[in-house]
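User: structure tokens for Probable N-succinyldiaminopimelate aminotransferase DapC, please.
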Amino acid sequence: LNRRLAEFGTTIFAEMSALAVATGSINLGQGFPDTDGPEEIREAAVRALRDGRGNQYPPGPGVPELRTAIAAHQLRRYGLSYDPDTEVLVTAGATEAIAAALLALLEPGDEVVALEPYYDSYAASIALAGGRRVPVTLRPHEGSFRLDLDELRAAVTDRTRLLLVNTPHNPTGTVLTRAELAAIAELAVERDLLVVTDEVYEHLVFDDAEHLPLAAFPGMRERTVTIGSAGKTFSFTGWKVGWVTAAPALVSAVRAAKQFLTYVSSGPFQYAVAEALALPESYYDDFRNSMRERRDILSAGLTAAGFEVFRPAGTYFVTTDIRPLGEKDGFAFCRALPERAGVVAIPNAVFYDDREAGAPFVRFAFCKRADVLREAAERLRAM
Ligand code: PMP
Ligand code: GLN
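Assistant: Done. Predicted tokens:
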């Protein structure tokens, strides 16, 4: 393994899912739903397979039906207008979109300012691209993890090429506010930075939180690469259909990298996701409401079991502090948890450069059936 990748090893998600299988534990580690997405969308995939749509290489940028549906979604939802032919690119999940964007946009040695804790593929993709990550740590403040705008400003140097943002944020569940996003946008414009924004949890925001796309802020449309995923929005993580929307020059750049990573992927599924994006608003409302209920079940259960719970405003993850349980090392806690309680969780420290800062936090996924969440909570309470 080369020096760029040596520090990363096996992803924590694979490690912890294997542990869940080996111990027969309830897996609240890796974020994948235990209920598949809509039946009619599965049927749409079957129809595409049978009708011979997408069984051979689809077009490099993605099938036109899907690119049109992505553009329509961005317009309907956010008032953002993208040309399906030049400003939309279909990728092999958001993971490839992130990798291709960083490979395309970074020169070796360029600095990337990323919110910490960060989704694990960010660090690896920055490294593959020869970039340097510069974390800005979200810190607990009155029940949620918040961004310190002064720290963010101080992290930008003459070597900074881009800001890598994620809202709603995995693993903390933070949804950046309008004021926070406006400050990020102002900074990007002032320092002439590109922004890659991972908005895969855009439809999972709860209570009075609102997802606002960074691309909609003044001066951002031309400098922002926005990433979405059908894995998250429609509960088909195995289909690996993601996308990028951005200005033509940025989409061309990302596509230049993407063509040598996978070239294309997920042919028949692209047609099905095009139909999914056109589902009525009630689909998105039901999806969000059902995840909110699950959030509440798991949060209550974790609180009853003695964890400090950071109530997530978005995503399907809840971050907890284990110190009230007399624990301080999330790694050790998560490695022991399957034996102790028959539950698998993720130590947030893996999402930090500053492992100390992340040590006491542990993430649980709540994209599971309510009875599964209740059983997990009961096991944790009895532990
Ligand atoms: N970004 C974030 C913040 C995620 O949580 C995930 C999935 N865990 C991804 C990207 C990857 O998405 P996909 O499965 O579409 O590659
Ligand atoms: N995004 C998922 C999570 O955060 C994991 C996806 C993966 O295993 N790469 O749990």
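User: Anything notable?

Assistant: The chain is about 45% helix and 15% strand.
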